[in-house]
Amino acid sequence: MLGRSLSKWMLSILFLGALWVLAGPILSAQTGPAFSTSTPLSGIVNDKFIVILPIENTGTGEADNVSVTSATFGTLTAVEPLLPIPLGPWPAPSPKQLVLQFSGSGLVSGRRYLLTIRGTYNTGTTQSGFSLNRFIQVTTVDSSTEASIQRWIALDAIRQEAESVNGLGKPDAANAMLAFLQSRPEFSSAEISNDPNTVLAIMSDGLQVVVSFDSFSLPDLIPAGTVSGSPSIAFDSPKTVPHKSSLQATSITTGSVPAQKTDGEFPASPTFRLLNVFPNFSDGILLPALTSWLSAEGYTPVSGASASVDGLKAMNGSNDGIFLIRTHGKIVGQGTANDPRVFALWTSDVATTGTFSSFQSDAYATPPLLKFFTAEIAPNIFETHWAITPAFVTTYWKPGTFSKNSLVYMDVCKSDFDANWKKAITTAGASLYAGWTDDTGDPFAAKTARLVFDRLLGANRYCPETSPKIIPSRCAVGQAGSAIFAQRPFSYAAVSSTEFAAHGLGTYANVSGNNGFTTALAFTPPAPGLSFGLLAPSIMNMQVDESIGNGGQLTIFGSFGTDPRNTGTGSVQIGGDDANISSWDPGAIVVNLDPGASGDVQVNVRGHQSNIAQLTMWQGQFNFQLSGPQAIHETTTYNLNIRQDIRKYRKVIHDPPGEPSNLFLTVMRSSTVNYSCGGSDVQTPSPQITDTDTWTGSGTWTPVYTKLSSPGPYFDVEGMLQDSRHIQIVDISALDVIAACPITIVLENPPGAPVTLTSSGSIYGAGIFGPFGLNLADSGTILPPPSPLQFSAPFALPIDATIGLATLQWDSITPTSPPDPNSAR
Amino acid sequence: MNAPPRWSKVWYSLGGVLGFILLTATPARADGIAFQLVASTLTATSNGTATFTGTITNGSGADLNATDFFFNFFNYDPTSITPNQLLGTSTDFSVGNGTTTSILDLFNVQLGTALSGSTFPIAVQLQDANGDLSAIETLDIVVSGGSTGGGGGGGTPIPEPASLLLLGSGLALVAAWRKRFQHTH
Predict the structure, then answer these.
(1) Residues A402-420: pLDDT tens digits?
(2) Do A133 and B30 touch (CB under 8 A)?
(3) Which of A173, A590, B55, B137 is 20 to 30 A from A219 via CA?
(4) Domains of chain B from N-terminus onward
(5) How far lies A439's CA from each of A58, A192, A285, A327, A517, in Å?
(6) pLDDT tens-digit profile of A616-635?
(7) DSSP A140
(8) Of A28, A35, A129, the CB nearest to B137
(9) Using a CB-CB distance cutoff of 8 angstroms, which residues of chain A are in contact with residue B135?
(10) What's the gap in Å between the CA of A23 and the closest CA on chain B?
(11) pTM of the entire structure?
(12) Do A130 and B88 make contact, defined as CB atoms within 8 angstroms?
């Protein structure tokens, strides 16, 4: 008993102890930026005490507008750099590095002094202070350490000079920087690159430094206006109803789907990696938006994606389906044999003593895999980062880094310029490469990226289409509605050829403001064997052929990529049910319809969903009433079930959807005809002769889908969808009316001696009537005729050949799954 | 043998889980080094100084000196207060691994001109030369009226939350033992 009680108390203690352990971090948790220092590189060089101090934001939030306002070492104040030192935005976790110089006089070697760094930063609109302390021992340094210290002094001098001359504008700033570098002993050479805004310097130990004077602002320059050329709303005008034989000739059959122009494939991998090195300096909401759009289309983000050097190295073999990076990029070199033009892409890694230890072998490689790259991180705040080169890509990104039919989008200045860079990317597996021919910047670049991804996905979240083709000065958020309609996914080629010009994005040209500066997002087409086209399946239009199979066949035209079903991830849904796919071509999918299938049609390829198209169905009663001579009559109810895609649809990107036209149309197999014949006609051609003709019979017919050539218990309806508002029924044939409704002829000659005959002859035309039209309301409802339609009905009774009258009428017929005005076309 | 009562099973199960947690939990950054303040809220007059005293615990795994410890401050109003590290500035001494110092002057906060009754929070984190970081503590300096303060670290020490918890645990334990003793005897 005592032991059990003791156990209980021990467990109580354990419980309280665990609570204490767990509560500590929770109680002391702090959100927001937090800063700490790392081991500095320091020593006396040229009578100055130099401190190369890495500082880390170890907190949980970004600090903005960071500035160092004081730096003291013991009682000394830093003599360089000039205070305050602007550090700009500071994400967490990430390092920055200070290069501080103090007068060496009065410092005692071997003694520790307290270094104190004070400054301010913003979180939101609140300004806060920070104060960091670190004891550092004063030491003399060997030649190797001194050289290392001199490197960081030189790089910090570049930063200060860049901030000093940046206001001169381009290209004067670059020229001033060139003169500065040529005056510094740490550099063996320096040159203005082929890009007059970029300087390349070679340090005495061979390390390369790129200094870029860039612009982050690239506004819309094309003013609002109207694109030349007349708008075209309808690309197919309704045509006259062709002859019946030609209608049948255009009917669709399995295996005879006309060849369609294909837009290309979707990425084989569903993963995407979106990187933005300076989210707060550029459009910070672009990547969250693209992430949302891509995720909604079945793509999945790569976890842990990073634009750091190690993060980029880790991409090797990752099989990315979509890759996008937003960062600095520059071309350096004069373009000669000994000084080729080479692209350099800025990473998120700040050049620090710590990263230098990790990356120096790549930086000293020939050709270098990494370079120093000094550029703006905020207006007039420069920072030196590591930049990767084509050699880096060749070394670290092996084939398989990008998936088959992948999209690599470099939202980076001059990213389309270096053929070796692009070759390295495509060798790593990229299918479609998108890059800028010259400099770019926000908001123009971000808007262009939004437009590209929106159109490739059919997201309809940005820059809705307009009619006529008015270019908005700013693309709005959202989608177009009826009658322009949201837009289905289109290929990059369509986006490039049409959408850029239509919306004033993608190509930037401003003669007056920038001396003829022109830049464009260029697409390098996939290499043979690869075929990126777009990012989601796209349904253009559909056609039903009721004559095939047990329930008819539906052909879906659009862009669907190569048949994906061997991987088990390609499907078509109709009304929420999986359809039986008969064939799958990149431009057309044929499915065998279940009897009665209708509703929303959607194609799924590896989890990527197409736009939704409606297969509309009507189930209506058409009442046919035939009145012959005297009391002869026929009453027939045509229960006609019809389905077709009656949506307006978009053949060409940006153009408003046009009318469907001249689609052969017949009735579903569930259609029936119920008939009943009756009445008599009594004629007395002479006083001695009485002729009584009596019509009887009733029954049900079912439809057939070949031209009727002989009577039978079936009927045939042939029609055409003229446009989204008109259906033309060419004719309805029911030849069996003769056999089904025999006429009994009773002759009395003389009266009281009847002779009865049963006629096999025709009494009523050919059992065919038509044509007539069905008008559809906006809702898709088949409207009733204002008054019953009338047809002449030639009768051929043995004695009483006459013209009868037939009428046809119907009530409103509401469809199931009418076209959705909000669906993408 | 009788089966133990059902409540005992619950206790044993609970104890097993908690024991596991206790043995395996690694409080973030709190294991290596830590500082304990005599008071986390001090008063000082406008333009005065509040000095924070406390102890340093070295659990870094290596012997360190006082000058191997650095106080970092952030999230404070830079126009009103200025923090200064005191630890290691006047004398250096060893802080052996696994030891806790006596109560020392750790840092002070100089107040600028401020209204009486104002409170200025400041976040403090201790760092050592090896890069170990303590938990972040948020302290308050309350502006008092009257003459300029300075130096004394005035005000009544206010125990830390974790200390409160430990204190409460101990009190509960003592009370429980007393109760059991009374029942038994």
Answers:
(1) 999 999 999 999 999 999 9
(2) no
(3) A173
(4) 28-167 (2.60.40.10)
(5) 34, 16, 21, 11, 9
(6) 999 999 998 888 788 888 88
(7) B
(8) A28
(9) 24-25, 28
(10) 7
(11) 0.83
(12) no
